[in-house]
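Quick one: structure for this chain?
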Amino acid sequence: MEIVASSLATGLAGRGWEPGVTCTEALGELGPALRNAAIPVALVPAPGVRSMIRAPRLAAHFRARNPNLVMTHSGVWLRGARAARAAGVGAVLHAIHGLFVKEPWFGPAEKRLGARYTDRIVAVSPSLREYLRQVVRIPDARIEVIPNGIDTARFRPGQGREAARARIGAGPETLVLGCVSRLDPVKNLPLLLRVAAELMREPRNIRVLLVGDGPARAQLEELSATLGIADRVHFAGAVADPEQWYGAMDVFVLPSFIEAAPMCLLEAMASGCCVVATDVGANRATLADGEAGALIPADDHVALSDTLRWLADDRPERHRLQDAGLRRVRQEFSLDRMVESYDDLFRRVLRQT
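Got it. Here's what it folds into:
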């Protein structure tokens, strides 16, 4: 979500807008980069449940900035929309990027209330639009689907391939299975390690590359040792240049229990990886029902094992899926296309208010 909001602000700045970014908890890692790009970034704390009903500091901030339009993102919907209306902002929009693994019981009601103060809602995937329609009960006419987009000039095939593969001890014929994500239990990466260990015993020349950090890292390191594959699993940690690591991967595997519209899937496709992902969230739509990557049921050991074995043995089919994924992300999920869609939406909403 933070990457999308940051990319959107930067992209809109090149289209005649004067964007600003307001954070309610912390500036995060992207705040300094936005400031370096001459985009104003403000931290206006709005803590606690009370701020959902009344956030005077946030309203005062909007009143001082006097924007034509305010767009909130995910968790700040109700507090941000109410504060914008209290400040007299003419147009208020919201983008929903995903849901909690276990949505709180009051989640739909909170979103329904937030929608009362919002002119238009953006869902980043068709599945989120259906959630808004069926669960939150927002009329379809008020919802727009704008898929996330990535910089296809930054993420492109072949970047850093030889150097990255050399760092993990992968030769030209090694099949590298990888994932770039937060190392969180919801990603179900133990499944990838167990399947990889099974394939290595056949035997196969396989290595696993995990890029990212998080609460599940220690468990994953321990599991790789227990499975006897620790010498063939590389933990790159959190990195500032993920595009250099995607290039090392032959097959990108995202075995998550739940997803919304994962950016890493788009980045992997743009980087020329063959993609395998669970059929959750927006993954099916992103992969064109399996035409641009392989889809498997969530937490299905046999399905993942069979799919990876198939791709390991059928190089032409692996390359076909790589090419299909690359074409699809360039045609449907580019950063330029995303920014253009928001630009068009903003102008339409402003004409109507």
